[in-house]
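SEVERITY: medium
COMPONENT: batch folding queue
REPORTER: lab tech (J.R.)

DESCRIPTION
The queue accepted two submissions in a row. Attaching both inputs and their returned structure tokens so the on-call engineer can compare them side by side.

ATTACHMENT 1
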Amino acid sequence: MKKVLTLVFALTIITASSSFAQLPDNEVAGGPKINFEETSFDFGEIEEGSYAKHIFEFKNIGDKPLLLKEVKPACGCTASEWTREPILPGEKGSVTAVFNSRGYGGRSFHKSISVTTNMGTNAQKVLFFKGNVIKKVTEPVEQPVQSPVRIENQ
């Protein structure tokens, strides 16, 4: 009985101490921490065939250098550029999203970019952007007026 009580007491102490030591799911003790000013953007209406561009800015609010390991657009119609050198604590960086609207005339879009960092268990963040593509109006091409063919007997 004494062993059982000792075991229960030990488990209670271990459980209590570990629950106080846990941080919320989005927190990592020390290390780099990324804080985006915004994680979604609405382009509104853009014309078909144009390139829509938006810069997502962030800050390293951690105490170690932050590194963007991979920045991956969800589809081929989106390109991205990003800060490639380590971002020191307190410094800023950016991820630029560029959407090619060719072929999207008359449709809406909702795209994402996955950003993988060196933050340990919470290393991936997702950025979203959307908009509506207005079908490009093309001017009709004027055809030259042809006169009717006339055949005369001689």
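ATTACHMENT 2
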Amino acid sequence: YTGLRLDAGGINSFEILKVTPKTKNLHLVPIDLTCENLTPIRKSAEAFPIEFDASDYGKIVVTGIEYKENEFEILYKKDGFTFFDPSFDVYDKNGSLIPVSVYEVNVNYDNNSYVMHCKGKAAPGQIQSIECLKSDVKLDFDREITINIR
């Protein structure tokens, strides 16, 4: 984020979750935001888990789909660095897009899992494939900075 300057005076605040009290330092790696490609990857939703490469640095792992009244839930985890929350599209057996009107994500910090609530009708077994985007975002390791924790 261009407003967060590590080479200037000022105070920046971070909330770091799941860090042990023994942590001595953090490594901050700038993100190169010249991401130009978002590649859709579609996979079968007949068996779980389903792994999607979200970037060169991390994956989205779909662990299941649960069907509810007027919505369905996509259960997933993140493995490694993913720049943004996934944007899932789901398809029926004919390859037709199943419409979704609203997405809402809940995070379970205790087990590092996510639930994406998708407002739309889908009968159990109707979702035959799922699509996720892969970005070409790059981490700029040449400008990595180490911060000592006091």
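NOTES FROM REPORTER
DSSP finds no helices and twelve strands in the chain.
No errors were logged for either attachment.
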